[in-house]
């Protein structure tokens, strides 16, 4: 029997490799709940493996060299559970999300409070309010998820700083921190979103008043330019907030967009919030859905083209996809425009999540095959993209206290740990003050899609 020629052998190998890619790619039908739920599980399984491998000394919810990313992952998993019905991860999520609330149930544990920033704590607050809105089971003998979100809100509004720029939340908390002199979009946009979601869930006007206040300040600063609906990354107290860091990140747009959508729904369709939703939405489409990938695939344009996204930036798209889905549900007039963007992203994710034998996902959804990136953050982003489509299919509004009375908010006494807080603003409600410091790393790159100031937690 004659052997194969080199040409024949090469062709056979190519066919084999092509077959492997086809076999390992996810199957996603964007109008099928079962298809999306199964794809989400294929993505979540290796994500949870990465989670177990990267826990710091086995501490639940504490990942090596970061803290907030686990909170963002729990937020994503809760939303996935609520729309897919997959309960496999709930036990871990419930235990670890509560565990990391700390000894005072404020997501400001003394184990980490020496280096946490406002944006770090904020993500755990968003995870908690997501639990309330989805009806995620409460933990017996522990505060409600809404109460945990409320405590984050209370602590953060006490850090509202009017000593510079007439307001705003600083990026970091202590003067020793590299980002202390900056006020950035994710801290202010995140608190705005948390306030809006608490307002809608609890029907407590205090939260709505703060949402208005945060929006108004942000729009009066360089963070949001409402003439062209441009969201800057940061501005500097040292220059009286006249300058801005202009790198474009999906989650900066996403927090303000989501918060505006929740406020639109909370106010029963106030036209000013509709205008803000539409302005931010069109800008999000124009900035983060590049024609390079056909205009319907979400891209982190500041770092993806040169494959320079760090572990923080790798996760941004997943949050933004879910916040876009919230917008489509809460502001129905936007659904027709948002749906093809999220469906296109899910179809792209199916191709990109074709790495190795475990459906590992890459960084760039717009590429037809796995780009070689792997880790918890890219799996989490892909799961968020798939989950956003499950949210669209279900088209169910987030719950409120009326439909989830078990999640009623209660005051949490976190020992009035307030004496060291560097700011003086007073909250409307009883709150507990806290302070900490962190030396946060600034990342800069000087190229197209260069990276500037952004969160880098430890």
TrEMBL record:
<keyword id="KW-0378">Hydrolase</keyword>
<feature type="compositionally biased region" description="Basic and acidic residues">
    <location>
        <begin position="407"/>
        <end position="426"/>
    </location>
</feature>
<keyword id="KW-0325">Glycoprotein</keyword>
<dbReference type="InterPro" id="IPR005198">
    <property type="entry name" value="Glyco_hydro_76"/>
</dbReference>
<dbReference type="GO" id="GO:0008496">
    <property type="term" value="F:mannan endo-1,6-alpha-mannosidase activity"/>
</dbReference>
<dbReference type="InterPro" id="IPR014480">
    <property type="entry name" value="Mannan-1_6-alpha_mannosidase"/>
</dbReference>
<dbReference type="GO" id="GO:0012505">
    <property type="term" value="C:endomembrane system"/>
</dbReference>
<keyword id="KW-0472">Membrane</keyword>
<feature type="region of interest" description="Disordered">
    <location>
        <begin position="398"/>
        <end position="426"/>
    </location>
</feature>
<comment type="similarity">
    <text>Belongs to the glycosyl hydrolase 76 family.</text>
</comment>
<keyword id="KW-0812">Transmembrane</keyword>
<feature type="signal peptide">
    <location>
        <begin position="1"/>
        <end position="24"/>
    </location>
</feature>
<protein>
    <recommendedName>
        <fullName>Mannan endo-1,6-alpha-mannosidase</fullName>
        <ecNumber>3.2.1.101</ecNumber>
    </recommendedName>
</protein>
<feature type="transmembrane region" description="Helical">
    <location>
        <begin position="434"/>
        <end position="455"/>
    </location>
</feature>
<keyword id="KW-0732">Signal</keyword>
<keyword id="KW-0326">Glycosidase</keyword>
<dbReference type="GO" id="GO:0016052">
    <property type="term" value="P:carbohydrate catabolic process"/>
</dbReference>
<keyword id="KW-1133">Transmembrane helix</keyword>
<dbReference type="InterPro" id="IPR008928">
    <property type="entry name" value="6-hairpin_glycosidase_sf"/>
</dbReference>
<dbReference type="Pfam" id="PF03663">
    <property type="entry name" value="Glyco_hydro_76"/>
</dbReference>
<dbReference type="GO" id="GO:0009272">
    <property type="term" value="P:fungal-type cell wall biogenesis"/>
</dbReference>
């Amino acid at each position: 029997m004659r052997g194969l020629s080199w040409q024949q052998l090469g062709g056979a190998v190519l066919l084999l490799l092509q077959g492997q890619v086809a076999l390992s790619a996810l199957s996603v039908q964007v109008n099928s709940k079962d298809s999306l739920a199964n794809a989400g599980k294929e993505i979540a399984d290796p994500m949870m493996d990465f989670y177990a491998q990267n826990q710091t000394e086995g501490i639940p919810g504490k990942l090596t060299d970061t803290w907030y990313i686990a909170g963002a992952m729990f937020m994503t998993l809760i939303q996935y559970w609520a729309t897919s019905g997959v309960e496999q991860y709930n036990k871990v999520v419930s235990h670890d999300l509560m565990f990391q609330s700390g000894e005072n149930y404020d997501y400001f544990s003394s184990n980490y409070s020496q280096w946490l920033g406002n944006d770090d704590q904020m993500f755990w607050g968003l995870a908690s309010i997501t639990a309330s809105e989805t009806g995620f089971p409460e933990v017996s003998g522990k505060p409600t998820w809404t109460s945990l979100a409320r405590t984050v809100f209370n602590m953060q509004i006490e850090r509202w700083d009017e000593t510079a720029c007439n307001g705003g939340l600083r990026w970091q908390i202590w003067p020793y921190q590299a980002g202390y002199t900056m006020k950035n979009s994710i801290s202010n946009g995140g608190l705005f979103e948390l306030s809006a979601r608490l307002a809608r869930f609890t029907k407590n006007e205090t939260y709505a008043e703060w949402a208005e206040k945060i929006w108004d300040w942000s729009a009066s600063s360089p963070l949001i330019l409402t003439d062209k609906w441009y969201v800057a990354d940061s501005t500097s107290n040292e220059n009286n907030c006249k300058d801005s860091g202009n790198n474009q990140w999906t989650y900066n747009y996403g927090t303000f967009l989501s918060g505006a959508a929740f406020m639109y729904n909370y106010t029963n369709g106030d036209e000013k919030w509709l205008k803000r939703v539409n302005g931010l939405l069109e800008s999000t489409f124009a900035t983060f859905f590049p024609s390079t990938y056909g205009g319907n695939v979400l891209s982190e344009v500041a770092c993806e083209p040169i494959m320079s996204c760090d572990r923080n930036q790798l996760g941004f798209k997943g949050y933004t996809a879910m916040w876009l889905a919230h917008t489509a549900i809460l502001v129905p007039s936007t659904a027709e425009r948002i749906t093809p963007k999220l469906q296109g992203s899910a179809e792209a994710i199916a191709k990109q999540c074709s790495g190795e034998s475990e459906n590992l996902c890459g960084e760039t959804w717009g590429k037809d095959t796995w780009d070689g990136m792997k880790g918890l953050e890219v799996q989490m982003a892909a799961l968020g993209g798939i989950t956003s489509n499950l949210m669209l299919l279900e088209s169910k509004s987030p719950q409120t206290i009326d439909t989830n009375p078990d999640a009623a908010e209660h005051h949490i006494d976190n020992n009035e740990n307030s004496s060291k807080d560097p700011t003086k603003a007073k909250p409307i409600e009883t709150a507990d003050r806290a302070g900490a410091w962190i030396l946060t790393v600034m990342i800069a790159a000087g190229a197209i899609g260069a990276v500037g100031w952004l969160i880098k937690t430890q």
